[in-house]
Amino acid sequence: MILNHIAIIVSSEAGVEFYKQFGFKEISRQVRSEQHDSIVHMEGYNSTLEIFIDGTHPARMTNPEALGLRHLCFQTENFDKFNFGEPVRINHEGERFSFIKDPDGLPIEIREFKPHVPKDDYNPKA
């Protein structure tokens, strides 16, 4: 079994443009007149995003968080190019991470790419 795609509802074309900045490329677009939305398929990094553009959905609940998808995470060697709205933290593997939000408020984790150190050699206090 493999993961086929991740479906995200966005309120406008700005959502599609947001994911393009991460290197996803639009591969197809379907306008669904009866449902009053469009579906955009985007590919990148051996993954597919299925973006539903429909501004009639309610805003994402953030506090308290609703059940379901919590966030997406992208790992990058260009961690310092992002402007984060919250503090940068360090995970258990010594990688920096923080969060930004897409235009509709979906949390996106940005994680620093570091070659992994074998767990036996990992010392976060070193």
Summarize the structure.
A hairpin with a 4-residue loop joins strand 2 (25-32) and strand 3 (37-44).
Describe this protein's structure.
Helix content is 6%, strand content 37%. It is mainly beta. The protein has two domains: 55 residues, 2,3-Dihydroxybiphenyl 1,2-Dioxygenase, domain 1; 59 residues, Roll (2,3-Dihydroxybiphenyl 1,2-Dioxygenase, domain 1). The strands form two sheets. It has a four-stranded mixed sheet with strand order 1-4-3-2. Strands 5-8-7-6 form a four-stranded mixed sheet, with no helix packed on it. It is globular.
Backbone CA Rg: 17 Å
DSSP helix fraction? under 10%
| Bulk shape | globular
> Number of DSSP helices?
1
Question: Element order, helices and strands?
Answer: EHEEEEEEE
Biggest sheet details:
4 strands, mixed
List unreliable stretches of 5+ residues: 122-126
Number of domains: 2
* CATH class category label of the largest domain: Alpha Beta
List keywords for this structure.
single chain; 126 residues; mainly beta; 2,3-Dihydroxybiphenyl 1,2-Dioxygenase, domain 1; 2 domains; four-stranded mixed sheet; 1 helix; 8 strands; globular; disordered C terminus
Q: How is this fold's topology laid out?
A:
Blueprint: E1 6-10, H1 13-20, E2 25-32, E3 37-44, E4 47-53, E5 72-76, E6 89-90, E7 96-101, E8 107-112
